[in-house]
Each structure stands twice: as C-alpha cells, then as structure tokens.
Amino acid sequence: MNTPEFGTPHTEAQTLGAGVVKRATRLADGRELIYFDDPGTTLGPDRAIDARDLAPRPETATMRRDVLSGDWVSVAAARQNRAFLPPAELDPLAPQTPSNPSEIPSLYDVAVFENKSPSFGPALAAAHGATPAHGDAPAGVDAPRDLDDLDAPGLGRTRTSVGRCEVVCFSPEHAGSFGSLTPTRARTVIEAWADRTAALSALPGVEQVFPFENRGEAIGVTLPHPHGQIYAYPYITPRTTGLLASIDREGPDLFERILEFERAGERVILTGEHWTAFVPFAARWPIEIHLLPHRHVADFSETTDAERDELAPLYLRLLRGVDALYDTPTPYIAAWHQAPVNRGRATVRLHLQLTSPRRAADKLKFLAGSEAAMGAWIGDVPPETAAARLREAVASIPEETL
Q: Which residues form the active site (predicted)?
C-alpha cells in the first residue's frame, strides 16, 4: 500500500464503493492511519499533522505453542498499559484537541489506525508499521515459516507474533456502538472493513483477518467510544481450524445447506435479498445470532456493492432489535468470521456470529466448569424461544429510524 511518510498532512484520496473516500497518512510514531470519509461528507480534504512526541513502539510480542491443544498463545505484555475507561475529555479515540492528545489528529467520519499496543505485529517497531517479508525479517524476529511450521510438534516452541491489529473508529462521538450509527455511516464502516480485509490479507505472513466489535463493560470493553477492531493473525485461528475440519466431514457445500436448513425453519429473525439472520440450531449463548450472505463469498472484500448496501440497514435493524429486548443496552461480541487467506476460500463463507451472555434483564451467563474447562456447553434458552423474542424485538424497530 502506498502511504505518505509520517509527519505530513497530505493524504492521497481514493474513491471506494458507495462514494466513500479513503485517505491514508501516518501517526507521529509511524503507525498507519486511514480516514474513510462518508459520501457527501462535510469534512475537507486536509488532515492535521500528528505532532505528538511519542515513545518508541513496543517490541513485537512473542507467541508460544500450547502442546496440549496445538494452539498458539500470544504474550503481549505491552497491552497492560492500554487505556481503561478514561473520562470523555481524555477519550483516546476522539479527534485531538489542545487538552486531549488522542490517537487521531483530525475530525473524521470513520478512522482506522494501527493499535499502539498490539497483540500481533509489527515485525519491527522501527519499520514504520510495515511487516517485512520473512526473508527480510530483521534480527530477533522469528516469524512463522508457513502453516506446516506452526503445526510442527515439540515442547517450548515460540515464534514472533507478526501480523497487525487495527482499531476501527465508527464515529468521533464519545459513546455509542455500531447500532447507533446512521445507515450512511454504517455503509462507510462496511466499506472500511472490505478495504482493510483486502489490505491486511496481502501482508506477508498474515493467514486470517478478523473484524469484530466488543460492546459493553460486561464483555470487558475498556473504551465506551463506538469502535471495533481488526486482527490479522499469523496463523489460522482455532475456531476456523475446527470449521475447516467440519467442512471436511460434512461436505464443501456446508454453508449452502445450513442456510437452506435455517431458512426453512422457525429460527429466522430477519431476511433480505442478499442476507439472512437466524438463531442457529445448536446455539450456545442466551443470545446468539448468525448472519449469512445468500451467495458464497469468502470475506468482505468479495461482497458486491448491492450486498454492502443492504447489509448496512439490515445489520442496524438487527442490532437495535437486540437492544430492544431489555430496557438497557445489551453487551455482545459481534464476530465477522472470514475464510483464511490461503485455505478454504471456496468453502468457508463470510458470516457474522453475534453472541451475548445476557440471559435476563439482570442476569448474565458465566462460563463455569463444564463450558470453560471442558468446552461442553449447556444452553440456557431454547433457540426457538430466543428466535421468537428476537423476531418480535426486531419487528418493533420503526422503519423510519433506519
């Protein structure tokens, strides 16, 4: 990706789908910052320089292989220093002011930047945020060679946690979530997800890209600012590894058959021309919703303008329906599962898995012995009951509010 050197306000404009304009620049320590302007934005083309005097970026974390599960665990001690529930006047995701030296120099519609204390990447703090190819890795960086290297046996195996972690700011407002956006702004975020998925998938060593939103203190959110994140992993995640095994067992048309099965049943919540939302047959969580595109797409970068256009209001309706279940906002994790970069592209379909531990107005489901220790789940709410409640809640959202 061509981006200007850090310290300059000049940004090269690129027009994306739906009239969204992308402007890439750099923060004072070299991290990439990308503005995504709404179509018809009132913002001008200029962006302020990030004039902060920042400490050097932390060294890239190291990941260790758990031989009992085969999973890789990234140990990122720098994350201990991240912001924790700051007051609104010190919001690190708001536009900078003289009294708030935040991460984003200018007023924005949507902004994406590299996390200051990432779980994955960069390969070298002095490399201006770029992850070098494996053959060009500097001394001290021991990146995974390939997927076979990651699967190799042995005790005490470590690798450098190359990759990328990005923050996606949905709005300059201090509080909110994706569900509080306008349809136009939601469409801009979706365009940003597609753009970043393509860019991160092209980085050397990246095997999977994962956009997600954590919402609510009960989930562990430390910033109330409306935002999500994107992780670019140097391996295929355990969840997706299990999914690939399921596809091998069930057949390459698994997602097509799941969609047909669910659309014929009683757990559908919301459907459109291109997308269907439903409570899955074997839902684990009190609130669990899957959202699938009707045709096979491996990730956001493969969706069409028409699919993105419909997703914006449909997803907003779904999220506002979840919030209509109770008198207070519901905590959730909105996880957009995408196919790995180099495997399963023809069989793993882009899909949302939205989960919440909220099982009543004043009760949460906590993972205790069976679930947390053994991975053996016990559902508290029949999926058909949950779907009926969610359908009613979604139907209560006035069309004119979208």
A: 227 (tele-ump-histidine intermediate)
How does pLDDT run across 24-38, given as a tens digit for each residue?
999 999 999 999 999
Pair 285, 359: CB distance under 8 Å: no
Helix (H) or strand (E) holding 147: helix 147-151
Task: Record the tokens describing residue 81, joined without a space.
Answer: 């220093």
Give the number of residues written for the chain: 402
Query: Which residues are registered as beta bridge partners of 36?
Result: 22, 110
Rounded CA separation 188/294 (Å)? 22
Flag whether 1 is in a domain: no
Mark whether 157 and 298 lie in a shared domain.
Answer: no
In our burial notation (b when 16+ CB lie closer than 10 A, e otherwise), range 94-120 reads: bbbeeeebbbbbbbbbbbbbbbbbbbb
pLDDT value, residue 86 = 77
Q: What is the pLDDT of residues 114-134, one digit of tens each?
A: 999 899 998 643 333 344 433
Give yes or no: residues 151 and 229 share one domain: yes
- Same domain? For 230 and 306 the reply is no
Q: Which of 227, 274, 290, 351 is catalytic?
A: 227
Local structure of residue 292 (DSSP, 8 states) = E
User: Domain of 37?
Assistant: 12-235
Structural domains of the chain, count? 2
DSSP 370: I
Give the domain-ending residue among 180, 211, 235.
Answer: 235
Both tokens of 285, joined, read 């969580």
Note whether residue 380 is domain-resident.
yes
**4 falls within a domain:** no
155 and 297 fall within a common domain: no
| 166 is a domain residue | yes
Based on its alpha-carbon atoms, the radius of gyration of the chain, rounded to whole angstroms, reads 21
The enclosing domain of 84 has a CATH number of 3.30.428.10
Residue where the block lists tokens 């355990």: 238
Burial of residue 196 (number of CB atoms within 10 Å: 0-12, 13-18, 19+): buried
pLDDT for position 130 = 42
Looking at 20-103, list the stretches that DSSP marks H as alpha helix, in order from N- to C-terminal side: none
Q: Are 20 and 36 in contact (CB under 8 A)?
A: yes
Q: Residue 87's pLDDT is what?
A: 85
Last residue within a domain, chosen from 235, 254, 269 = 235
- 10 is a catalytic site residue: no
C-alpha 126: how far from chain center = 26
pTM for the model stands at 0.93
Asked whether residue 108 falls in the same domain as residue 208, the answer is yes
pLDDT in tens, 380-395: 999 999 999 999 999 9
